UniProtKB/TrEMBL annotation:
Membrane-spanning intervals of the chain: none
PROSITE patterns: A_DEAMIN_EDITASE
Top-rank lineage group of the source organism: Eukaryota
Organism expressing this protein natively: Lentinula lateritia
Disordered: annotated segments: 441-465
Protein name as catalogued: A to I editase domain-containing protein
Gene Ontology biological process terms, A to Z: adenosine to inosine editing; RNA processing
């Protein structure tokens, strides 16, 4: 890009302007955290915001849905990334019909065009390993003393709870930060961003369509202000560079096919976010709502264009319409407790009607991937196949014409999942991510209407453990821990119709590392 190119601060100002136009704000006494993904081009001075999200909440383990109809983790960074996944999948359909200025098709795979960079913005330091010293520098002295005096032994290969043992580096941490909140299976945003530096942001479904990982080149972070202690700025930069990718350096293979460690450049911005905690007030509480927006939505039933009318990707050049960042060019939803705001508990169970389901939920993204397979490759995702099987199996989409176009040919595991095992499998750097030793809490029937706030937060306020029950039988506890571990696929047994495959099938087919749960 030339010398007149916009600065990072200019890009962040555009993101803030888009957020303001969406007009989904927290209550006056509440703050929000904002994150966004955007693209820059070496051939243009403009940028393309592809997704935006706010949020500080995640669902406790005892309230996780098992049909993919709700978002487990509604932290801003995660919501924005899931919006980016949706934009990437939708862009393959748009590319087929009208061409794309951002991606191009090479043989039967896609890739981002030459000169396109993916960048990420977060309005504050991501929770977890990147923010421990940043938070310690600004916390109440009394709380700091209590934290320092309550050091607990950390067992190698396990996750730390929130801010426990915050003096330790390179430790996987679960959300939320508060010890009085119900436990979750959600890893911190620092851990998730670090995993994207190895796997890319495109997810398992995007990995089937693209050549290798799609990586974040730069992360711009707010609230680390130049007017503050210079040494603290240096410390936070070191922590972010380490926590968001650097801690994996030298621990992963350098020849793992299409995947490699791509550490993002870390930069700070002084541009204030209007609803940040610093602006609203340090005594404010976090908003219960999560905003999610992604650009360039496609109509629900757009038929694929005939081959003779398709535009060549190489002949398409991005114009102003494709660079425009406007709310009207995208889809916005507001979530609370992982569900769409305003949807009653009764309607949440209507899985066939997509208007009741968050567009960034697992079920919605599975349906979008199924549409991409059908529209772009002529391949059907069978209803006998679960979300977990669809994302972990190797789908040779380029071979769909060799036999029956309605049959999805699979091999045992995808290259993406192999790379994931290298990151999270036994003795891997992030092996604790798929650790079997989870809290033995399972859902039980509750009189809850689903409207109360039971989510865990990175903010303030104690949440009720509504709907949670402890198991007393040791055998049942072990059974549940093995079945409901993060890598088991227990939470991904639903199919494209939102139907739950039988538990007996799950018991037989769900693989954890190199053994089958019995």
């Amino acid at each position: 890009m030339n010398q007149s190119s916009p600065s990072d601060d200019d890009h962040i100002a555009l993101i803030h302007a888009l957020y303001s136009q969406l007009k989904v704000y927290p209550q006056p006494s509440q703050y929000a955290i904002l994150s966004a993904f955007y693209l820059t081009s070496s051939t243009s001075s403009e940028c393309k915001i592809i997704s935006l999200g706010t949020g500080t909440k995640c669902l406790p383990k005892c309230r996780l849905p098992i049909r993919g109809e709700a978002v487990h983790d509604s932290h801003a960074e995660v919501v924005a990334r899931r919006g980016a996944i949706r934009w990437i999948l939708e862009e393959t359909i748009r590319e087929r019909v009208q061409g794309s200025g951002w991606i191009e098709r090479h043989a039967d795979k896609y890739r981002f065009r030459e000169g396109i960079q993916i960048r990420m913005y977060v309005s504050t330091v991501p929770c977890g390993d990147a923010s421990t010293r940043f938070l310690a520098a600004s916390q109440d002295p009394k709380m700091a003393f209590l934290k320092d005096s309550a050091v607990m032994a950390h067992i190698e290969g396990t996750t730390a709870r929130g801010r426990d043992n915050y003096h330790l580096f390179n430790v996987l941490r679960t959300k939320p930060g508060r010890a009085d909140s119900p436990p979750t299976l959600s890893l911190s945003c620092s851990d998730k961003i670090a995993s994207w530096s190895w796997l890319g942001i495109q997810g398992a479904f995007g990995a089937k369509l693209f050549e290798g990982g799609t990586y974040i080149q730069k992360i711009i972070i707010g609230e680390v202000l130049p007017s503050r202690d210079v040494d603290l700025i240096k410390i936070v930069k070191e922590d972010c560079e380490r926590a968001l990718g650097g801690r994996l350096e030298g621990l992963l293979p350098t020849d793992q096919g299409p995947y490699s460690l791509q550490k993002p450049v870390i930069a700070f911005t002084p541009v204030p976010f209007i609803h940040s905690r610093l602006v609203v007030g340090l005594t404010s509480t976090s908003s219960n709502e999560s905003l999610c927006w992604h650009a360039d939505s496609i109509p629900p039933q757009t038929p694929p264009a005939p081959p003779q009318t398709l535009l060549s990707s190489s002949s398409f050049f991005p114009d102003s319409d494709h660079f425009r960042n406007s709310p009207s060019n995208g889809t916005v939803q507001v979530l609370i407790n992982g569900y769409k705001r305003g949807v009653s508990p009764k309607h949440r169970q209507k899985m066939q009607n997509s208007k009741f389901i968050p567009q960034v939920s697992k079920l919605s993204i599975l349906r979008l991937y199924a549409r991409v397979c059908k529209d772009v490759y002529g391949v059907e995702i069978p209803s006998t196949q679960s979300y977990h099987e669809t994302k972990t199996d190797f789908h040779d989409l380029s071979d769909h014409q060799s036999a029956n176009a309605n049959v999805l040919f699979t091999q045992p595991v995808s290259a993406y999942h192999e790379a994931k095992i290298l990151l999270k499998g036994p003795s891997a750097p992030f092996s604790a991510w798929w650790d079997k030793s989870t809290r033995s809490l399972v859902p039980t029937p509750s009189s809850s209407t689903g409207s109360e706030d039971v989510s865990s937060s990175r903010g303030e306020g104690k949440e009720e453990w509504t709907g949670c029950a402890r198991l007393n039988d040791e055998a049942d506890i072990i059974r549940e821990e093995r079945l409901q571990c993060r890598g088991s696929g227990y939470w991904e047994r639903f199919n494209v119709d939102g139907e739950l495959l039988s538990l007996e099938r799950c018991n037989q087919d769900v693989h954890y590392y190199d053994y089958t749960i019995q």
